[in-house]
Request: fold
Amino acid sequence: MKYRIGLDISGGDNAPVEILRGAHLAQKETGQHIVLIGREPEIKQEAQRLRIPLAGGFTVIHAPEKIEMAESPAVSVRRKKKSSIAIGVKLLKERKIDAFVSCGNTGAVVCASTLYLGMIKGVERPGIALMVPTERGVSLVIDVGANIGPKPMHLFQYGIMGGVYYQLVFDTPDPSVGLLNIGEEETKGSEFVKYVHKLFSSSPLNFIGNLEAKQLFSGNCECIVADGYIGNIALKVAESCAEVFGHFLKDSIRRDPFAQIGMLLARHSLKRFKRMIDYAEYGGAPLLGVDGVVIIGHGRSSARAVKNAVQAASRELNRGINSEIKRRVNEICQNCRAGETSSS
Amino acid sequence: MKYRIGLDISGGDNAPVEILRGAHLAQKETGQHIVLIGREPEIKQEAQRLRIPLAGGFTVIHAPEKIEMAESPAVSVRRKKKSSIAIGVKLLKERKIDAFVSCGNTGAVVCASTLYLGMIKGVERPGIALMVPTERGVSLVIDVGANIGPKPMHLFQYGIMGGVYYQLVFDTPDPSVGLLNIGEEETKGSEFVKYVHKLFSSSPLNFIGNLEAKQLFSGNCECIVADGYIGNIALKVAESCAEVFGHFLKDSIRRDPFAQIGMLLARHSLKRFKRMIDYAEYGGAPLLGVDGVVIIGHGRSSARAVKNAVQAASRELNRGINSEIKRRVNEICQNCRAGETSSS
Reply:
């Protein structure tokens, strides 16, 4: 199917150049129509400099304001109505684009999406779903930072939404769902986590219980549910490790000529290894729960990461994730909502 | 100084063999007197088999019961009064040993220590301080799992205690203290974290603000304060990463003969690299705040890790950490306690 994918050209550490390069790659490889949202003069000038022909596969939408990475999400979304993020999400709301991809301020994307698109009927809060490489393939972790003070029902719904996504995108019937906790036994953790465990245990989901953080990359569980605060920290620790190990390794071989020759011989394998642990391979992270397809890219996204994020958006549209989320959440939560007191 | 270091022989995944081997190593290298606490017949039999002469450097104390790794801490400590953990902590309380080292059930060690030793006057809750390798040396992270529902004052005191430890053990005047959070700005995170930020900001500590998890191994901060739940997850993610990267790397070079030769050439550097990220290098983690020197070793501790944990205990005793903690906590908290409502 051919879709109109909106792309935030102002967001991300490498904006606008890498984002534009990514748009070009995505347009060539996926054939989707890319709607470039950002400062029009800058987009046109950079496109010319990079020799990217804008005729045909692209539309440019002028968004003069830019939300910086460190700005307060709630404040900036309300104040900067002409930012690329606000305009992109509004275009999605008006069905002028089919999906919106941004590598900009994550909090602002979450905030604008919740504000302008609203939630899928029955869903209480959005969650960011991240694909992580594991020893057996890919696992999905939800939430990694959209909701830093979740209620039990939010986590429960993350399990439903993540399961739907995993099932439809990776063609896996009845994916396993686990809960990130400090121990495997159901008696472990805070009262909060124990209550969430109970919600999952009495649901029709394929719930396999608590998972310790050391199992995060084991591939033992397909959909891992986490408190957004903890999920965010877990994810950043993993990134930090990848970086620091690289430094340590380099440090350790720098003064060893044998090791240097060794690394030269192993360079193809090392490249393959690097690709395995590179976030860019796994595209952006879908913001599940909002009433529209929104993909959040990594702030440091390269052109390839941007292209993969656009592909993630098309995949989500092709598989009809949101209508299935609506169906499943309402089917499953009908029963359990009676026992739950508060909602938003 | 010569001390009597109590060692839990029943605790840990590799007990009793690796623990005994570690005791032997520690006795030879540090000259400390090691008090072996566990099942006496088993200790004597294994020592004979391993050709470890018990005369002279060791005392054996019979503790017939064993707390398993998966047992509930509170329940097992109360029920198994003759476990190696309960007996070890009681020996410390009675000043029959100077420090206690265990690689057993972490929760049970925390629970028994709090119950039998009590807290250092003025300290509200104990915290586990872990040394982590960074790009510039070693950072201390406190708490990594003793207290999974901390109050703001607990975290504040972790900052004081961790700072004292870092200062005295690593000879660093006025070490920097940071707060693990999902963003660097002081407006980031939950109300809880913001309040802790305020406590630190108005204290005499060398507080450098919030730290994101991606800076955990950067070495930018000497003492990193974390909620025990989050600290525990961060630590386990890091361990998991180290493991998974190893698997990925092996996978990636397995079918590449050039890479295999390369790795052979680089083997000395790879070994050095492995040592850099090996927890065993950094000894056990002190349980700070309880009225006695308690060191918690990793469950998977090897003999070398056990030896390093015993060394960590002697270091703590030599530097008089606990009396300095008492002095500093009471000096600093006198002012701020007026503003804090609850304590235990």
Q: What stands out?
A: The CA atoms of residues 7 and 101 of chain A lie 5 Å apart. Chain A touches chain B through 59 residues (CB under 8 Å). Chain A has a mean pLDDT of 90. Residues 124-283 of chain A form a domain with the Isopropylmalate Dehydrogenase fold (CATH 3.40.718.10).
